[in-house]
């Protein structure tokens, strides 16, 4: 099969399109003819060996796919011919065939295309975990999301209202990204420069209930300052590169929380959680209460460029690589 593979840890440009044998089915594994694979920031980090998961070289890039089941175990909840989305967590996605554990494979609603489907699981279930579980989002609360035109950002914009948020404020670095944020459902959009003052003004000085932060870096302390009393700052990632530190007196003085939100760790340590999440998110997708992502598509031959677009900050929305 054709696949996007990394054989040296030199960043996205080291991704090569190669012909390799199809992966073998394993007990409990579902074999999928892959139509599309999602790209996420951990893929960038993995091409440099900088992510917490470090697969042996060479490895196939990507952690999530959408496609058609070719073969499934007799007792699985999916069967040959089903349209599915699946997690390969992580690596082993951007090939024409992938194998995923049955508990990480889900039927895709008919109203969602395979290309859009490839952009759902990784980000939407992270955001669902962040807002529901770690952030305890209550009806009518205000959510602010950094990097709002990115993968996690646009997921937050698409999902927050359906999960109960009353208002979703997007923080983005450029006017072009502001357009993307609006198109994905932001109630308000502010630019990174001067974002704290703008948010204070928008909220009449009150601040926001939840900050979902996939960016980190030097805006972190201002994120704490942007919280309303009893607000929660969710630590999701560090695309800015720098890992911030917290002066805990700020938490005490304002009655606010800084909370880690590592979805992959939770999934691995809480069997059955993924299925619970899908049982809630799937009907919202199927009924259109959560709009499907509108991914930017790259053919497999341009997989390196697709991953590089997240590295060089030019990506907007979810990026997906198509294989069929
Ligand atoms: N905790 C979890 O369970 C979990 C799950 C999935 C992903 N993540 C993490 O979430 C983060 C976002 O992932 P993603 O797939 O949404 O990434 P993405 O699509 O590339 O979006 C990231 C956003 O970060 C902002 N950014 C600020 N400084 C940047 C820089 N120096 N380089 C690149 N982007 C920069 C950009 O927005 P502006 O240009 O508008 O600032 C960009 O749109 C990553 O750190 C990833 O590892 C965590």
TrEMBL record:
Pfam families: ADH_N (PF08240), ADH_zinc_N (PF00107). It comes from the Bacteria. Signal peptide: none annotated. Transmembrane segments: none annotated. Residues 11-321 form the Enoyl reductase (ER) domain. This is NADPH:quinone oxidoreductase. It comes from Nocardia vulneris.
